[in-house]
Amino acid sequence: MAHGGSEQGLLILVVGPSGVGKDTLLDAARARLHDDETILFPRRCITRPAGCAGEIHIPIRAEDFSSMAKQGAFLLSWRAHNLCYGIPGHVRRDVANGKTVVVNASRSVIDDARDLLGNRHLRIISIRANKDALRKRLEARGREDAKDIEQRLKRASAYHITGPNVMHVDNDKDLETGIKHFIDAIQHRPIPADQSATDTAT
Ligand SMILES: Nc1ncnc2c1ncn2[C@@H]1O[C@H](COP(=O)(O)OP(=O)(O)OP(=O)(O)O)[C@@H](O)[C@H]1O
Ligand SMILES: O=P(O)(O)OC[C@H]1O[C@H](OP(=O)(O)O)[C@H](O)[C@@H]1O
């Protein structure tokens, strides 16, 4: 049986502050769950040029984004870090067809996602790490300059993630431990007690 599959379909939003490791964990899960056809890891649409370090995305021209959003190209969209982001509209059909869809999202769209899909079809995996780790990782990643990194660190504690179907995964330790707990959360296996708590601040 495919652990991550759901007869009802499920959207899993992976959220957390910049630098916490969302894309790294997603890349590892995508590779390790490759054989499970019930779990999909779609690419996001972003008004960031192709070829930047980090996540592979679908590049969209800034001048096209809002008309695409109006035409329904995105299931969810948001603005952050002077960029626009969209989760492709086909994800809704994928969930309706019973797939488990796992994608990186802004903490700001959790309520919109709950309104759109209802709690039965939605899980939030909130990735956490301490601020020192975030700073070191953003500096080492080298995609943003020092000013942008400060903005991202300021935004880190801007949200308090509460509500149903939230699983927390701490990615403070070695990456392999983070990956293991992340895959457990996707497959809804219990995460060790100190790694997860519902209704806890990020
Ligand atoms: N457990 C870990 N230990 C050490 N380094 C890590 C760990 N997890 C991720 N990293 C590193 O931290 C950096 C930031 O990770 P990543 O880009 O995945 O974060 P993110 O949450 O997707 O950030 P953003 O929201 O800005 O895209 C990467 O260079 C990654 O290799
Ligand atoms: O702070 P919040 O709104 O939760 O996250 C905002 C956005 O910031 C990050 O963008 P990027 O991947 O670094 O471009 C996340 O992936 C997310 O899409």
Task: Write a concise keyword list for the protein shown above.
disordered C terminus, 4-stranded mixed β-sheet, Rossmann fold, alpha/beta, disordered N terminus, binds adenosine-5'-triphosphate, 7 helices, binds 1,5-di-O-phosphono-alpha-D-ribofuranose, 202 residues
What's the gist of this structure?
The protein is of the alpha/beta class and 202 residues long. It has helices at residues 22-32, 62-70, 90-96, 110-117, 131-141, 146-156, 175-186; strands at residues 10-15, 39-40, 45-46, 58-59, 74-80, 83-88, 100-104, 122-128, 166-170.
The oligomeric state of the chains shown is: single chain
Taking all Cα atoms into account, the compactness measure Rg is 16 Å
Q: How many distinct helices? A: 7
Q: What is the CATH fold-level name of the domain at 10-41 and 100-195?
A: Rossmann fold
Ligand kinds: adenosine-5'-triphosphate, 1,5-di-O-phosphono-alpha-D-ribofuranose
Largest sheet: 5 strands, parallel
**Low-confidence stretches at least 5 residues in length (pLDDT < 50)?**
1-6, 197-202
CATH superfamily of the domain at 10-41 and 100-195: P-loop containing nucleotide triphosphate hydrolases
| CATH domain class name of the domain at 10-41 and 100-195 | Alpha Beta
* Class from secondary-structure proportions: alpha/beta
Mean pLDDT: 91
Cα shape = globular
CATH architecture classification name of the domain at 10-41 and 100-195: 3-Layer(aba) Sandwich
Task: Report the strand count.
Answer: 9
Describe the strand arrangement of the main beta sheet, using strand numbers: 2-7-1-8-9
Distance between the terminal alpha carbons, to the nearest Å?
A: 33 Å
Our estimate of the beta-strand percent is 15-25%
Share of helical residues: 25-40%
**Element-by-element helix/strand order:** EHEEEHEEHEHEHHEH
